[in-house]
Protein: DNA polymerase III subunit epsilon
Amino acid sequence: MWLLDRHVALFSGSLRTLLRRESDRRRCAGSPYAWLFQPYMGEELVALTCCVTPTGSSPVISLAAIVFNQQRILTSQAFVLTLGTPGQADNASLRRHRLLWQAGEITAPSSGNLSALVEFIGNRPVVGWQLDQRIGALNALLSARLNFELPNAQVDVAKLHQRQLRRVHPEVDAPSSFAQALACWQVPAMGAAQGILGEATASALLYMRLQRVMAEAI
Structure:
């Protein structure tokens, strides 16, 4: 975990976010979720990907979370879910969402399935591409149903990629898309074959690759 600790500045941690997390922690102090706010002391992380498609009155959210460590991705430990309003019109946007992300049946968000998600993630750090932009809709659901947002330390792989590329090639503009970043560091893109789970897996692989590059530079 030492490499992660060296890059604590890459965690999403604005003053507003930190104040909100502290407020959530106090609110949940006597609840079954209190342990989620405790510091994590292990070696595992969770790669998280969320894809949101607006459809009428409420969005459809497909998400995938997968556990990994510095050596390997634990493919047997994955959580995949599509949240929305069952019976939503199967319009063009929804069909495209299902095709692109290999989304399964839509499940109505509930305290039960959202609780299962946060308990799967636990208090492990969360890693993902452009996390701040990607998990807003999920946090809104968590806040409405469980009364708190994801409290985990979060590492934005996009920021990690940009920082490392500037260090190695200061004359090169950092590619802005996820696919370009994967190609830049020769990480296989798995999204086309596995949808939302493939993107979560690729996020974990990109993080692992960047950590190795940084370790070699020491």
Observations:
- The first helix runs from residue 2 to 6.
